[in-house]
Amino acid sequence: MVDIHCHILPEIDDGASCMDEALEMCRLAVDDGITKIVATPHYNPDLFNTSLKKVPELLSKLKVAVSEAGLPLELFSAAEVALAPGVLEKVRTSSSLTFGGLENQIRYFLAELPANVLPPNWDSYLLSHYSEGLIPILVHPERDNSIAKRPEILDKFIAGGGVLQITAGSITGELGERALHTSAEFLEKGYVHIIASDAHSSGFRKPALSEAARVASDIIGREKAQNLVIKNPQSVLSGLRFSSSENLHC
């Protein structure tokens, strides 16, 4: 399985507290059947003093630790980008914020909306560079109150080529009843394209996808559920376009 949203780099945001915990998260991921992880620290200058310049060095150190531990795990990096005025220009020009850096012709990026507040025209803004191959992945919409109350507001975003990623802990119930109910509804509607861990530690919200994939299988069938943790996230890593609206029921 491929986990494209994980706060596994140590001491850079609210994720892993140290290199030892980061390595333990890698062990847990491997035990769960994950073979690839993308480290995605927050890019939100208002909340985190995240220095993107630290990412290559931290990723390199973690790769060495993983290799020395004999863990069969590949590591990559991108970022979880908070929606803010002008942020897309930074995404377009920074090699640290997108999957594949500036090399892939099709470049995906993780987009986080403000908590429980939908800015006007948020969907059009996120898709404004879609024709250039810059594709937004909206993270954990099932945990947003305003979206949970009116899930149909996602239709335009998905129909326009936007991608939805829900959190594994939402599907398994770890993140509460509301997130559980909403994520199941999104799966039934065909809204979901990717399941990721959004892991932040080796305890609560750890890097695991297998249980979420099993629960999703009960809702949408095993083949579609496997696509959410293998095929689609691998397409993101490889810079391959896939139809984000093919399963949309509307």
Care to describe what's here?
Helix content is 38%, strand content 15%. By secondary structure, it is of the alpha/beta class. The chain has a single domain (2-238), classed as TIM Barrel, CATH 3.20.20. It has a 6-stranded parallel beta sheet with strand order 3-5-6-7-8-9. The chain has a 3-stranded parallel beta sheet with strand order 1-2-4. Helix 9 packs across helix 10 (222-238). The longest helix has 17 residues, at 222-238. The chain is globular, with a radius of gyration of 17 Å. 43% of the residues are buried. The mean pLDDT is 93.
- Share of residues in helices: 25-40%
Number of helices: 10
Would you tell me the structural class of the helices and strands? Answer: alpha/beta
Helix-strand sequence: EHEEHEEHEHEHHEHHEHH
Specify the biggest β-sheet: 6 strands, parallel
CATH architectural designation:
Alpha-Beta Barrel
CATH topology: TIM Barrel
Q: Rough shape?
A: globular
* Mean pLDDT across every amino acid position: 93
Tally of separate domains: 1
Q: How many strands in all?
A: 9
Query: What is the terminal-to-terminal distance?
Result: 29 Å
CATH homologous superfamily label: Metal-dependent hydrolases
Report the C-alpha radius of gyration, rounded: 17 Å
Task: Give the CATH level 1 class.
Answer: Alpha Beta
> Quaternary state, please?
single chain
Low-pLDDT runs: none
Strand content: 15-25%
The largest beta-sheet arranges its strands as 3-5-6-7-8-9
